[in-house]
Amino acid sequence: MKKIFLTTLLLLIAVSVNSQTIFGKWNSRNEETGKVDSVIEVYKKEGLAYAKIIDIKSADRKTAVCDLCEGKDKGKPILGLTILSGLEKDGDEWSGGKILDPRNGKVYKCYIKLEGANKLKIRGYLGFSLIGKTAYWERVQ
User: Fold this and answer.
1) CB 61 within 8 A of CB 30
2) In terms of residue numbers, what domain contains 35?
3) What is the pLDDT at residue 48?
4) What is d(CA 62, CA 116) in angstroms, rounded to the nearest whole number?
């Protein structure tokens, strides 16, 4: 009985800890349709946060490339593309990095913040954060 209780307790702690982090898989929704259009994986590398597109829901977009991107990302497949890079933990948010919008090829400064166990706020901006755009991603269940 003790083994079952301890195993259950450890599983609950693991799930609770995992849901309190920005890392993992997130659904990104199309602003116009409200439907999930891609799955983004946020991961940690050398103490910084990054994110890449790991799934595109629309069959006709799965082979799309970033034609509007500049530099090293120009012409790269959108599937697998790193869209968040170099974010550092600063209190309860991650900031100081960049976000790439593959729809227009533009790169913005950004910060991300966990708004709940299953909701991630992403704020992209030019100059300072008052002038920008906010999106919310939902954790993949």
Assistant:
1) no
2) 2-139
3) 98
4) 30
Ramachandran sector of residue 76 (left: φ over 0; alpha: ψ -120 to 50; beta: rest): beta
DSSP assigned state of 71: G
Structure tokens at 61: 């977009």
**CATH number assigned to the domain comprising residue 78:** 2.40.128.520
Distance separating alpha carbons of residues 134 and 122, to the nearest angstrom: 6
Please tell me the predicted confidence (pLDDT) of residue 1.
58
pTM of the model: 0.82
> 57 φ, ψ to 5°?
-75, -35
Q: Which residue has the tokens 């116009």?
A: 32
pLDDT in tens, 14-62: 444 445 899 999 999 998 899 999 999 999 999 999 999 999 999 999 9
Split into its structural domains, the chain has a count of: 1
List of E strands, 72-131: 82-90, 93-101, 106-116, 119-125
Q: Return the residue matching tokens 């920008």.
A: 132
